[in-house]
């Protein structure tokens, strides 16, 4: 089932999410619905707060970026190790490498994109769908998507990484999104 994406301005996007246990109600169904919602909205990552569940859960599919890169961008992704993966109860262990710039967007903040600096590499401990714990290091575009989604479960948004002047320049756009004055090709829910 395709779920509505929570729009900028909703308080759930600013909550630090608690961990969950294996008995979380209907978790498999929720994850399946999140994948369906992610693909329907043409995203590459989706965090539970974006579909109104304030829990430590997100999905990442960097395969889409790597496999669908146009000829001009293929070289940028030639060394990528893309993933399609569920992250439950993730905790960042270490950030490494140089910060690099990439133009990010967010399903909760449609039609707004900004260049964001993030580290090249992240080491993260998380649980998979069977609640087996893993610690892995990810780099490049996959690390970026993980860090973007991790921000969501920590109550942060990608626009929090831009300078205050740029953020002030976006105020009208952000206010319009919060008020539902935006047209997108996917379901959204707005805070009333």
CATH topology: Peptide Deformylase
What's the Cα radius of gyration?
16 Å
The DSSP helix count reads: 6
Low-confidence stretches: none
- Strands of the widest sheet, in order across it, are 2-3-4-5-6
The total tally of domains equals 1
What topology emerges from the helices and strands here?
Elements (H helix, E strand, L loop, with lengths): L4 E2 L20 H14 L4 E3 L9 E5 L1 H5 L3 H4 L9 E23 L2 E19 L5 E7 H14 L10 H6 L1 H8 L9 E2 L3
Parallel strand pairs: 1-7
Antiparallel strand pairs: 2-3, 3-4, 4-5, 5-6
Brief overview:
This protein has helices at 27-40, 63-67, 71-74, 140-153, 164-169, 171-178, and strands at residues 5-6, 45-47, 57-61, 84-106, 109-127, 133-139, 188-189. With 192 residues, it is an alpha+beta fold.
């Amino acid at each position: 089932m395709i779920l509505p994406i929570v729009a900028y301005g909703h308080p759930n996007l600013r909550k630090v999410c608690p961990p969950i246990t294996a008995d979380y109600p209907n978790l498999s169904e929720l994850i399946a619905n999140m994948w369906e919602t992610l693909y329907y909205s043409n995203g590459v990552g989706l965090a539970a707060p974006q579909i109104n569940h304030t829990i430590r859960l997100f999905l990442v599919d960097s395969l889409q970026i790597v496999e669908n890169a146009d000829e001009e961008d293929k070289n940028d992704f030639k060394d990528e190790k893309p993933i399609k993966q569920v992250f439950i109860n993730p905790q960042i262990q270490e950030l490494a490498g140089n910060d690099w710039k990439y133009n990010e967007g967010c399903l909760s903040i449609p039609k707004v994109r900004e260049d964001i600096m993030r580290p090249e590499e992240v080491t993260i401990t998380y649980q998979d769908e069977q609640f087996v714990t893993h610690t892995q290091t990810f780099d490049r575009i996959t690390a970026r998507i993980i860090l973007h989604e991790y921000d969501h479960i920590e109550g942060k948004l990608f626009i929090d990484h831009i300078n205050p002047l740029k953020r002030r320049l976006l105020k009208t756009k952000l206010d319009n999104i919060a008020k539902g004055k935006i047209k997108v090709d996917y379901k959204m829910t707005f805070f009333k």
